[in-house]
Specification:
The chain has 4 helices and 5 strands. The protein is of the alpha/beta class. The chain has one domain. Strands 1, 2, 3, 4 and 5 form a 5-stranded mixed sheet that branches.
Amino acid sequence: MSSIYSKDAVKLIQKDLKELARKEGLVIHCRRDSYSGGSSIDAWLMSGKHHIMTDAEIQKEGKEYCQVNHYYLDTSERYTDYGKKILTEINRIMQKYHYDNSDPMTDYFECNYYMSISVGKWDNPYQVTGNGKTEYMSSHKTDDILAKILA
């Protein structure tokens, strides 16, 4: 779909992500940014019924937040199996309308938009909302975990 602009693509992506969110019980935010070098479409997975990142990654980061490298989703050990499934589906939806004829080796960039996927935001981490209760990694919980590890 080389003729679709990011302004139109974001509407289609938001529609598809809304359907995924409804089906899986997730909260996904998506928006478009425009700048002099082009535009980007960014998606943030904000909450859901299951963890996206592994316990080890959550402990290391102190919260459930990361920027996803969508090129290495299959081989990454940062995510649970459920997390890989959801992030792969978000990536598939965002790639559906993406056109990229870039050649970085010759410093030639031609695409209709750049894209990024994140689990949570730096100031608002992903939250598990299973059983109607919100669970998140607080700094006190992080301190308790570190104390157990160091003991």
